[in-house]
Every structure is written in structure tokens, then in C-alpha cells.
Design goal:
By secondary structure, the protein is α/β, with parallel strands linked by helices. α15 links the parallel β13 and β14. The protein starts with a strand and ends with a helix. About 45% of the residues are buried.
């Protein structure tokens, strides 16, 4: 009798009774079936470290007697590798990271058990190829049960994604110019501040639009820090990234808001949109650099073998190919090149600052900014990890070996990283991040959320539920499916459902049952109004709800990593279906306040002494 392993990667219910069934994309398990996502969580440290080591080894692998980092040099001292999606390791941008991690789990299963054959049920062609190649390397019979994908509705986006990568890059080049055309040479460089000045780089979201109309800029990212700096006679040069949100309709409108702030503001701070430094010289530079990227692609055409993990038989090429190509000569490459040239121009014009501060997430634009800062500025720059630093947000982490060679490889890095709580510090310590670069600071975005009176509030049993949206579109779609499946139960029990969208992911959805109330108020106000909070697994707002002692339910899909900062907290309910939601709500009772030490998670002091100490001690004099 054959001893087969069955991998089930389909949405429909598995009816297979014989064989060792493993679910690829589900946290559900039975006596006879095993969940690969659960196995990944069980030995997460080993699997995460293995994947981070693969990324490090890939960067050091050689083609034509040069490391991959050296092969991707776009300038004499700057490599495109630092802006590559594969190095970024962001599960919110690349769902294939989850598949790569589960491939490592699968290989471990296959090596520990003697199977005769692997049978794969999936509609994912790239996963099918990857697992087939792994079985071949392990000399294991492979049987494919590849199903056809449902035909998607034809749209401009789906049509664009089917185009060759080089054509995607070219079209995005012209699209970028068209979208930013109203900002060309619309900066305020003639008013840049020179003396005792602080540079702050931020996103143009999460700011108070009403205050901006009065000429005041207040951002929840930074809270009281700018005012404290101004009170201590510092001046501020702001640069903002444009991100679509409800506060402005287009780039022209965004520029009007910035102009209004500058015109009504005092001489102690000046605001600019990064994209307002766009000019025709930059456009030409980016185009010719993109052509150079195409030649780099040709030069590195034999890269496939480098995607085999040296400590295993897995080749990740088919899973990571799209990220590699897009980052090298496709849409992402073009966008990153614009970021690089915009920051170079800005820092050439910016007078020497006393210190720089930016939102730290290890995104490609940060690499462009840090490279440009180090080239044209002499003051230290601080990366501020403004949100939580969850375990599976891999863009915060690198393998410990990486930190032994990053200076030699000219990795753009901040001089210091500001961490907002012991939770973040512990995670950075585990990754091998240099301790002398870490500093404790207050959690600015949470200062208004927490006070002694709010924290002591107990959760009451009521039927008011708030859905907190997140950036991941697929996760939001799962949320709506769960609520649609539970609609009869919610209607029968007269639950009131509110939804607060993430500012960068406001979806159009079917609200025909009229059970959702769209909320626009700040979350700190909404948390007073609702007592049951349902959040996606990647939003840091879940931590706020937990620390405010709300009944918290987190949506978790087997297709995604558990990106929640609360993944190890036993009091949190994680659900994956409408039935799970109904079960939790039926069992929901009034409960006592959860005892926790707030300082374990966040540093909170409205006087921000840690911030002021860091800036005063590290500021260039």
C-alpha cells in the first residue's frame, strides 16, 4: 500500500479520506489532516531564520565573479539590490514570501517521513512547478492535480499584469509622469530652512485636514514632537510622500494643501511634497537608468540557480521571479529610480541639517533617501519604527550574518533606530540588530489613545462591533466574506456593525444589506463607542484595541502569515470563517480587565523626554 502525502491548496472542502492530507492555506486541522501554516507557526524561529539566511546568501552569490549586490550597481556606490522586493521581504507586498516559508516546512516534512508519492491539488501553476522541482530533487514521485483558475473579469489592471515586464516598466514610466505632471517644479526650495534645523520625512496621510486649512500641520505619526522641537528653538524641513487618501483628490489638490500650510505658517517650518522636485532632467535620467537596468537583466540572465537555498533542495525562482523582474526592470524598478533621483535632487538643495528623522520600515524609498542623505548631508539620521514591530513583518529584520558585512556592502542604513516599546526592542534583539544603534523613544502615534482612565475601562457586553480595515486588499475581502456568511446571525441578533477603512485602502464593497456604517472619526474616538473590535491580522490598530481592554477578534487567513503584533497573546480570538465569528460572539461574555504592563508594549509620556534626549544628544552642533 502506497504511503502518499497529499497537499491541498484549493478553496473547496477537501473530501479525500485516504492519505496523509496537509492543508497548504488553512489553519484548520483534524485528527487526520495537518495544517502547514500551523506547523510554520510551531517552529517559526527556525523557518524564519532559514528564509532570512537564504536572502543573505543570495545577495552574496556570485555571477561573473561579482556578488549579486555588485552586479546590480546602478551608481558607483549604490546597488539596486537594496530596493529589490526580494531584499525588502515585505509580506504585505509579496504574498510569495508565505509560500517560500511553507516550502521550507514542506521540505522538512518530506525529509522526516518516507513517502512514496506527493499529490498536489492546486490552481497555482508556480507553486505546482516549485513543489514538482523539490520532489525531483528529493527523488520523490510527484502527481499534479492542477485545476484551472476561475476566469477573472477583464480589467485594465489584469490586462497590464499580462503584459511583458519591460512593457509594464515603460508604461509605468509615462503613467508616473502623467500622474505627477501638476507637481513638476512646484517645490518651495527657495524657503528651505538653514539654521538649527531638523529634517523630517513622512507620508502625506493621517494628518488633520481641518488644521491644515488653518495653516497648521498635525500628523498622528508625529503627534506633539514637531511642537516640542519648535518650542526648543529647532526649525523643521518637512518632506512628504504622496499616498492616495481621502484628504485630497489628486496631486493638484495635494499641492494646494501644502501651499496653504506654507503660506499661513511661520518661518520655523517648511513643507514640501517629494514629487514636487520632479523636473525634465530627472525624467531623462530615470529613463536612461531604466535602460541600464535592462542591460543588467541581460547580464544576470543565469541567476536561476542562485535561488536554490544552499542548505536545502528548494529553488525559489518560480515563486520570486515576478518580484525579481519587476524590481529590476519593471514597474517597481521605474518607481524606485524616480525615488532615487528625487531624493538626490532634494538633498543637493537642502542646507546642512542638524539631524534627520524618518518613518522606518525598510522600504525601497528609504534606501534611496538614506543613500542620498549620506551623500549630501553630514548629520546623523534616525529611523523611527512608528508602529509595532511584529514577528512576521520581515522587512524589519535581516539574518545575523547580514550585520557583519553591511558596511562593506554600502548598505544604506540609519545611524540610529528609534524603538517605541520593549516589545519592538525584544524583536530587534532577536534579529541580531546592533544594540548600539537602538534607542528608546515614546510611541508618538499612541499618546492620544492611552490614558489611565481609558485603560481601566472594562469591556461591556453589547452588540456594537467595529471592523478596523487594513492595507491588504485580500484580507479585507476575507473580512467581508466572513460577515456576509454571518449576516443571518448578525441580523437576527441585531448587531450594529461599523467599519473604519485604512486611509490607503478604501474599498468599494457590496453594502446592499445595509449592515455596515462607514466611520470616519479617528480610531481613538471610535474605540470609546465600540466594545467588540474585529481587525485584520496586519494592522497595528489591534494593539490599541487590546491595550484599551476591548474584546478583540482578529481575522486570520491561511493564505497569509499571521502578521499580528498579538500573535502570541492567548486572550486574542483568531478566526477564519463565518462559523468561527458566530461561535465567538455566542460565547462572548463580560470579562475582567486583562492585567498587563503597558511599558512592556509601548513607552508613553506626553512630555516625550526620551525623544528630546535622543535629538539633543545626537544632534549635530
Amino acid at each position: 500500500m502506497e504511503n502518499n502525502i497529499i497537499i491541498w491548496d484549493l478553496e473547496q472542502k477537501c473530501e479525500i479520506k485516504k492519505g496523509d492530507v496537509h492543508f497548504w492555506a488553512s489553519y484548520n486541522k483534524t485528527l487526520n489532516n495537518i495544517s502547514i501554516p500551523l506547523l510554520l507557526e510551531k517552529e517559526s524561529d527556525n523557518y524564519r531564520n532559514s528564509f532570512l539566511n537564504f536572502i543573505y546568501q543570495l545577495s552574496q552569490s556570485k555571477i561573473n565573479n561579482k556578488t549579486l549586490i555588485e552586479n546590480l550597481l546602478i551608481k558607483n556606490d549604490f546597488s539596486l539590490w537594496w530596493m529589490n522586493k526580494i531584499f525588502e521581504k515585505n509580506p504585505l507586498k509579496s504574498k510569495r514570501i508565505n509560500d517560500c516559508l511553507k516550502m521550507i516546512v514542506l521540505e522538512n516534512i518530506l525529509k522526516q517521513n518516507k513517502y512514496d508519492k506527493l499529490i498536489l491539488y492546486t490552481n497555482d501553476k508556480k507553486l505546482n512547478i516549485s513543489i514538482s522541482n523539490l520532489c525531483s530533487s528529493l527523488e520523490l514521485l510527484f502527481e499534479s492535480k492542477l485545476k484551472k483558475n476561475k476566469q477573472k473579469k477583464l480589467s485594465l489592471i489584469s490586462f497590464y499584469n499580462y503584459l511583458p515586464v519591460i512593457l509594464q516598466g515603460l508604461l509605468y514610466f509615462f503613467y508616473y509622469i502623467f500622474k505627477k505632471r501638476h507637481l513638476i517644479n512646484k517645490n518651495f526650495n527657495n524657503t528651505l530652512i538653514t539654521s538649527k534645523s531638523v529634517f523630517i520625512c513622512s507620508y502625506f496621510i493621517n494628518f488633520d485636514i481641518e488644521k491644515s486649512l488653518e495653516g497648521k500641520f498635525f500628523s498622528t505619526f508625529w503627534n506633539c514632537l514637531p511642537n516640542k522641537l519648535l518650542e526648543t528653538n529647532f526649525k523643521i524641513n518637512w518632506i512628504h510622500h504622496l499616498i492616495r487618501n481621502k484628504n485630497f483628490k489628486n496631486t493638484k489638490n495635494a499641492h494646494k494643501i501644502i501651499s496653504n500650510i506654507n503660506n499661513k505658517n511661520n518661518e520655523n517650518e517648511i513643507h514640501n511634497l517629494l514629487e514636487s522636485f520632479l523636473d525634465y532632467q530627472i525624467i531623462l535620467k530615470v529613463f536612461f537608468q531604466w535602460i541600464k537596468c535592462i542591460f543588467i537583466k541581460i547580464k544576470t540572465k543565469n541567476i536561476i540557480s542562485l535561488f536554490t537555498n544552499k542548505s536545502s533542495e528548494i529553488n525559489f525562482w518560480h515563486l520570486l521571479k515576478d518580484d525579481w523582474n519587476s524590481s529590476l526592470y519593471g514597474k517597481d524598478s521605474v518607481h524606485n529610480l524616480f525615488m532615487l533621483e528625487l531624493f538626490i535632487k532634494y538633498f543637493k538643495l537642502l542646507p546642512n541639517q542638524n539631524i534627520g528623522i524618518y518613518l522606518y520600515e525598510n522600504q525601497p524609498w528609504e534606501m534611496a533617501m538614506l543613500y542620498s542623505w549620506k551623500k549630501y548631508q553630514v548629520a546623523p539620521i534616525v529611523g523611527f519604527a512608528h508602529a509595532t514591530v511584529p514577528y512576521w513583518h520581515l522587512y524589519y529584520y535581516n539574518h545575523s550574518n547580514f550585520y557583519k558585512t553591511y558596511e562593506k556592502n554600502n548598505f544604506p542604513t540609519p545611524d540610529y533606530v528609534a524603538l517605541n516599546g520593549q516589545f519592538a526592542i525584544n524583536n530587534f534583539n532577536l534579529s541580531g540588530f546592533p544594540k548600539d544603534k537602538m534607542f528608546r523613544v515614546e510611541a508618538l502615534r499612541y499618546l492620544d489613545t492611552f490614558s489611565d482612565t481609558r485603560i481601566k475601562e472594562k469591556t461591556k457586553k453589547n452588540k456594537k462591533v467595529l471592523i478596523v480595515g487594513e492595507m491588504n486588499k485580500a484580507s479585507m475581502e476575507l473580512m467581508f466574506k466572513i460577515f456576509d456568511d454571518s449576516y443571518p446571525f448578525l441580523q437576527k441578533n441585531k448587531y450594529e456593525i461599523g467599519i473604519k477603512f485604512h486611509p490607503s485602502n478604501i474599498l468599494n464593497f457590496d453594502n446592499q444589506n445595509k449592515i455596515y456604517k462607514i466611520e470616519t472619526a479617528p480610531l481613538e474616538n471610535l474605540f470609546k463607542k465600540y466594545d467588540i473590535i474585529i481587525a485584520g491580522n496586519s494592522t497595528s490598530a489591534a494593539l490599541e484595541a487590546f491595550l484599551l481592554n476591548k474584546k478583540l477578534i482578529i481575522i486570520l487567513s491561511g493564505s497569509n502569515l499571521n502578521l499580528s503584533p498579538l500573535r502570541d497573546i492567548s486572550e486574542i480570538e483568531f478566526i477564519s470563517s463565518g462559523k468561527d465569528l458566530e461561535k465567538v460572539l455566542r460565547n462572548y461574555q463580560e470579562f475582567d480587565e486583562i492585567k498587563f504592563e503597558l511599558e512592556k508594549y509601548l513607552f508613553l509620556d506626553r512630555k516625550i523626554p526620551k525623544w528630546l534626549s535622543l535629538i539633543n544628544n545626537k544632534c549635530l552642533t
